[in-house]
């Protein structure tokens, strides 16, 4: 019986390749000590989310993992405060750049894109205590995250997180456009929050795809306005639209595997942590996909749902 390679080692090696592919500068400053490279810090942060621990805990675990240290290229471990300070000065938009490179790990065929939003808690409150005292978590302590998901392989294509809650329709065009740079989109799925004549027209003319979003009927006269909204109201492909629920599946997978509570306390750090979590999930998703499942996903299912 052959010994299979450890999944944690596979995850570390693949994360190193993805981060190195983004061509991030090896050192943040030319006058630094040049002891640790920036991609090594990012991989350590990814392992922190993968192992569901904190800054101190990931350094303590790496001390007992010489093979993981060898995969990262570390011969001595940094202090846990070094990892925290690196995350403070690292730009959140660079995590979006790394996330775009993780999309290349999956098949680049025609896909069905779904968009939706969720929230991450920022405080570890006790549900039993809040129920007994009548106190519930306020909306300000929840980070809003909006993501686009490739429903073919359940990977995150683009995302945006913010502390101040706003309407999800504001981020529809930027996220779908960012996903279109890496994916060949056939359909764009969303709930009624994204219903807008401008969105339907923009998806059709700019992206070259078809938007399947339920139309909100006017509550006064019960009419539908707009050319694209009228076409969609007459005929909507429910068989394809039902795949929008897979974006909720991805959110559930992320929260069950990496937790639904953010460890960072500063709002800027919390947004970076959500971006890091999306990167880690895509790499974890690619490693956990077996060969038989990979062959099934990209040989039969696209022909079933993308046929006209």
Q: How do the SSEs run, as a string of H and E?
A: HHHHHHEHEEHEHEHHHHHH
- The global form is globular
Per the CATH scheme, the topology name of the largest domain is Nucleotidyltransferase, domain 5
Portion in strands: 5-15%
Domain count, please report it.
Answer: 2
Question: What is the name of the CATH architecture of the largest domain?
Answer: 2-Layer Sandwich
CATH class of the largest domain: Alpha Beta
Mind summarizing the main beta sheet? Answer: 5 strands, mixed
Q: How many DSSP helices?
A: 15
Structure description:
The chain has helices spanning 7-21, 38-50, 55-62, 66-72, 80-89, 92-102, 127-133, 172-180, 197-207, 227-234, 238-241, 246-258, 267-288, 291-297, 301-305; strands at residues 110-121, 142-150, 155-162, 184-189, 210-212. The chain has 308 residues and is of the alpha/beta class. The chain has 2 domains: 7-90, no CATH class; 95-100 and 107-264, Nucleotidyltransferase, domain 5 (2-Layer Sandwich). 33% of the residues are buried. Strand 4, helix 9 (197-207) and strand 5 form a beta-alpha-beta unit. Residues 291-305 have low confidence and may be disordered. Helix content is 49%, strand content 12%.
């Amino acid at each position: 019986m052959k010994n299979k390679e450890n999944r944690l080692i596979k995850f570390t090696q693949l994360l190193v390749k993805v981060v190195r592919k983004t061509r991030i500068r090896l050192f943040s400053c030319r006058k630094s000590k040049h002891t640790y490279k920036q991609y090594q810090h990012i991989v350590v942060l990814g392992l922190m989310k993968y192992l569901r621990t904190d800054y101190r805990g990931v350094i303590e675990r790496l001390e007992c993992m010489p093979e993981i240290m060898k995969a990262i290229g570390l011969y001595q471990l940094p202090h846990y405060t070094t990892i925290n300070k690196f995350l403070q000065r690292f730009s959140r938009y660079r995590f979006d750049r790394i996330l775009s490179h993780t999309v290349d790990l999956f098949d680049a065929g025609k896909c069905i894109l779904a968009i939706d939003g969720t929230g991450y808690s920022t405080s570890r409150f006790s549900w039993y205590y809040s129920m007994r005292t009548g106190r519930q978590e306020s909306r300000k302590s929840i980070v809003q995250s909006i993501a686009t998901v490739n429903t073919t392989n359940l990977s995150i294509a683009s995302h945006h997180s913010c502390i101040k809650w706003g309407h999800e329709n504001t981020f529809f065009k930027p996220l779908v456009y960012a996903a279109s740079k890496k994916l060949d989109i056939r359909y764009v799925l969303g709930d009624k929050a994204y219903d807008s004549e401008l969105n339907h027209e923009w998806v059709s003319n700019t992206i070259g795809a078809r938007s399947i979003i339920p139309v909100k009927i006017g509550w006064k006269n019960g009419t539908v306005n707009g050319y694209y909204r009228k076409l969609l109201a007459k005929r909507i492909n429910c068989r394809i639209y039902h795949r929008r629920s897979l974006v909720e599946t991805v959110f559930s997978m992320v929260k069950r595997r990496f937790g639904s509570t953010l460890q960072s306390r500063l709002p800027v750090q919390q947004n970076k942590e959500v971006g890091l979590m999306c990167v880690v999930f895509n790499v974890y998703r690619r490693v956990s996909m077996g060969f038989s499942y990979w062959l099934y996903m990209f040989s039969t299912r696209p022909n079933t749902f993308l046929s006209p």
